[in-house]
């Protein structure tokens, strides 16, 4: 081990060296995401802003695609991060894994550049292959889709082969099965059909079954490992919880898919199926809060990494409120009839994505920096700059919650005026858009968006500097394997 507080690759095992590359790209894309979010938000306030130069649809597309890609990069990073320690074996095929990182990252860069350069044009088969596939969140053209599939196969090989040669734990089992499902579902978003209902039907398999099933399980796996590392929770407890959560998650989330089939031309039975099963979806999220809070309490919150612990708690509550509460609010067809596709939806989308997925990734960024700097102290009374992580945490969370509330108010107004009073007419749409409550909500969204961006900037600065002037070594929680039980 090198000196405490100094960034040194020798502190990391092979998988972790690759993980920090994924994390670095994730942080950059997170920056792009919030930047393009601000631009799209400004265009709500002034539709002429950058019109014809950088159109709203393009900004919005880059905003949400960057979101999906940075979260996936974060997940890939976290899997490589935990792989060697969990399997007690070095990553099998690491060189190939490294190569794929560069291939994938170059592809992402080219895709975004093309989005920005070719903003308008005819919709031909060649556009689907080369420019844009036109399915929200996963607009990447088909050449990139194929590249993604190949990369993912290599990644899957790294993970499955490492666990097979090393130790195949309960966490490993859930992870491998979940990756199979997560990657398999991606294929449902790659086909070309001319019927919009059929297209949407399959597209939702990717979007819904990702965030409300496979990504949630991915988060549960990463969280299980995180709780063992920083709180010292026993493997028996986290694995038992993990199995329960997975059962509840898939039990409600798979048929919960029906809450997107209310109004897109699918058969009427989806109203009941979607309403019923999706209403059960908050249950595993409650279980996850109980689990995290119980574990933290039973270990008297004694932990080896305060920023990571704080972000893990933010995840438990953010997931519950953003997905569970904000999702439940509009998931019954009787309510969704009025709220569908309004800012209400965007309000939920922001809090859920941030609360469930951004938070856990940020927690792992802090874990990574800690070990990279030689298992440096990251508990109370940090030398030099302990205020930064707390302010970043506060600004990011208050910023996103502020945006969420602002959009909820706008969405409430749309549901009442455009839908209920004006009867969903074209004219009603414009009445609602001009209403002061809508307009003010959009201003507040932008103001809190600025706060979010300030939090992001501070977070990046903090990640780059935390632990730099610290001379104390991390104290592992009693019973914890600590960071680095298997150094490779
Ligand atoms: C972490 C988990 C979740 C994430 C990231 C998430 C995210 C989103 C996003 C981004 C949308 C908008 C999709 C679009 O562009 O049309 C959406 C829609 C929706 N979500 Fe979630 N969601 C999550 C969990 C849930 C849960 C647990 C429920 C129900 C209890 C729920 C209920 C809904 C409903 C009903 C819609 C459709 C809204 C409409 O009709 O416009 N979501 N979700
Ligand atoms: C930095 C401040 C941000 C601003 C100003 C902003 C603004 C926007 C705007 C204007 C849209 C388009 C909404 C529409 O089509 O009506 C949007 C969509 C979206 N943003 Fe953000 N955003 C920000 C940060 C974030 C963050 C931090 C996340 C999640 C981690 C996020 C997730 C989303 C999602 C999921 C959608 C699609 C929602 C839907 O289709 O319902 N945004 N954002
Ligand atoms: Fe859903």
List its traits:
488 residues; mainly alpha; Cytochrome C Oxidase, Chain A; 0% strand; binds protoporphyrin IX containing FE; binds fe (ii) ion
Summary?
By secondary structure, the chain is mainly α. It contains 16 helices and no strands. Residues 208, 212, 259-260 line the site of fe (ii) ion.
Structural class: mainly alpha
CATH architecture descriptor text of the largest domain: Up-down Bundle
Number of domains: 3
Main sheet: strands, sense, barrel: none
Find the count of extended strands (DSSP E, 2+ residues). Answer: 0
Give the rounded overall mean pLDDT. 94
Number of helices: 16
Bound molecules: protoporphyrin IX containing FE, fe (ii) ion
Kindly state the percentage of residues in helix: over 70%
What name is given to the CATH topology of the largest domain?
Cytochrome C Oxidase, Chain A
Shape: globular
CATH homology superfamily of the largest domain: Cytochrome c oxidase-like, subunit I domain
* Spatial gap, N to C terminus: 12 Å
- The H-and-E topology, N to C, reads as HHHHHHHHHHHHHHHH
Rounded to an integer in angstroms, the radius of gyration calculated over CA atoms is 22 Å
| Uncertain ranges | 484-488
Strand content range: under 5%
* CATH level 1 name of the largest domain: Mainly Alpha
Write the layout of secondary structure elements.
Elements (H helix, E strand, L loop, with lengths): L13 H32 L10 H32 L6 H24 L7 H6 L11 H24 L4 H17 L9 H36 L3 H22 L12 H12 L1 H17 L7 H24 L3 H7 L3 H30 L13 H36 L4 H9 L1 H30 L23
The structure holds protoporphyrin IX containing FE (2 copies) and fe (ii) ion.
